[in-house]
Design goal:
Layout lengths: L5 E8 L9 E7 L1 E8 L2 E8 L2 E8 L17 E4 L5 E5 L2 E5 L4 E5 L2 E5 L11
Antiparallel strand pairs: 1-2, 3-4, 4-5, 6-7, 7-8, 9-10
């Protein structure tokens, strides 16, 4: 029996000399869903053309301002002219594309204006 979203392959991870820490026969999945990461908001991670993407899935009426990302170790965080988030870490740059937000109504995706908002961490 095939599990939902499971690839037809397994991963083996043999690292180090301690055999008890080795892992074998680990299933790989096309998508991974985390439920209630924020109140009434789930997150689904998946690959898209060799890049990791994620979607936040909010229940109707949910306050999406609860979604907050933080990046420990980031040396610089800025928004580019297209509202993509640029994160500099150890002389490398990570780009998170601007959020695409939509609501499904009768099967149609209705775009909702959205953007990243940079906030200062307190504490």
């Amino acid at each position: 029996m095939e599990r939902k979203n499971e690839f037809n392959c397994r991963l083996n991870y043999f690292d180090g000399k301690v055999k008890e820490e080795w892992r074998a026969n680990i299933p790989l999945y096309k998508k991974v869903l985390y439920k209630d990461v924020y109140p009434q908001i789930d997150v689904i991670y998946y690959g898209n053309n060799g890049k990791l993407e994620c979607d936040f899935i909010a229940s109707p009426g949910t306050d999406i301002s609860n979604i907050c990302l933080s990046f420990d170790g980031a040396e610089k965080i800025k928004l580019d002219e297209d509202n993509n988030l640029m994160i500099s870490i150890n002389e490398n740059e990570l780009t998170l594309l601007r959020p695409r937000v939509y609501q499904k109504i009768n099967g149609d995706e209705i775009e909702i204006e959205s953007s990243f908002i940079r906030m200062q961490r307190i504490g």
